[in-house]
Amino acid sequence: MKPGPFVYHRPLSVQEALSVLTDVGHEGKILAGGQSLIPILNMRLASPSHLVDINRVPGLDEVTVSSEAVRVGALVRHRQLERDTGAYAANPLLRQALHCVAHPAIRNRGTTVGSIAHADAAGEMPSVAVLTEAVMEIRGPSGVREVAADDFFEGALETCLDHDEILEAVRFGRFPEGTGTAFLESARRHGDYALAGVAAAVTVTDGTIVSARASFVSVTEVPTRLDLTEAVAGQEPGAVDWSVIDDLVQEHISPEADIHATADYRRVLAGELTRRALAQAVTR
Amino acid sequence: MTEETYAIAVTVNGVVYHRSVPGRRLLSDFLRHDLELTGTHVGCEHGVCGACTVLVDGEPMRSCLMFAVSAPGHEITTVEGLGNTPEAMNPVQQAFIECHGLQCGFCTPGFLTTITAYLRDHPDPTSAEAREAISGNLCRCTGYQNIVKAVLRAAEIAREAPAAASTSGGASA
Question: Which ipTM did the prediction report?
Answer without folding.
Answer: 0.94
